[in-house]
């Protein structure tokens, strides 16, 4: 698996270099994201740099807003959770449990780790 990822990374890097339209900074960002994809979320560069902002409640809010849903709508999609509870999860006043994290991950098609 690692060898395939290394080969893909080299291939992608050569494509970026040949395009000449991607800045060096953007190239490094792309390659960092690619490397992050090969390790658990909390071991990647993104987490090391922005982990303090990437708490479960903030992730919940971000995904909800990206979906264009209100707190009430998200609560309904999760089986009738009150808006006040959604607000408490998002603000970090209430912890997101494993069962809710699984529902959120399924709903937003992402990793459970995002909400734990």
TrEMBL record:
First and last residue of the signal peptide: none
Database matches in InterPro entries: Cro/C1-type_HTH, Lambda_DNA-bd_dom_sf
Keyword field contains Membrane: no
Superkingdom to which the source organism belongs: Bacteria
Keyword Aminoacyl-tRNA synthetase: no
Name of this protein: DNA-binding helix-turn-helix protein
CDD domains assigned: HTH_XRE
Species this protein is from: Leptospira noguchii
GO MF annotation terms: DNA binding
């Amino acid at each position: 698996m690692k060898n395939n990822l290394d080969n893909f990374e080299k291939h992608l890097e050569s494509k970026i270099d040949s395009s000449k339209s991607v800045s060096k900074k953007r190239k490094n960002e792309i390659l960092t994201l690619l490397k992050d994809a090969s390790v658990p979320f909390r071991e990647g560069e993104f987490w090391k740099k922005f982990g303090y902002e990437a708490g479960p409640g903030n992730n919940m809010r971000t995904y909800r807003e990206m979906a264009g849903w209100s707190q009430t709508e998200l609560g309904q999609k999760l089986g009738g959770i009150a808006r006040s509870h959604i607000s408490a999860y998002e603000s970090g006043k209430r912890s997101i449990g494993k069962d809710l994290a699984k529902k959120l991950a399924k709903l937003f098609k992402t990793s459970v780790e995002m909400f734990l």
